[in-house]
Amino acid sequence: MTPKEIARKWLQAFNEHNLEDLLALYDDHAEHFSPKLKIRKPETRGLIKGKVSMRLWWQDAFDRLPDLTYRELTITANNERVFMEYTRIVPGEENMNVAEVLEIKNGLITASRVYHG
Questions:
Q1: Beta partners for 33?
Q2: What is the greatest pairwise CA distance in the chain?
Q3: Spatial contact of 36 and 115, defined as CB atoms under 8 Å apart
């Protein structure tokens, strides 16, 4: 898959709350940074490492926010990096524009970083 295809698969898996498909896009030792992590789990300082930690984080999000969806705005990619912009939609909350960078190596995400606007 191209990096852009990986990003679209990422969005699809996230919107379907398909944790297995989402994690399959990541390297076993990948890192994920998010401002939401800093808030909900301050001890992480916003950074988690490895699929086990990502599984726990995203399963918690899917359980707490069953109607959480991301609406794609733009995807820009080269061979090693994807820059995605999407709208985070949760009923009862104000929509939030989000930017996320995916670092890609050997067809897998090795790092992801979330930025809120």
A1: 47, 113
A2: 39
A3: no
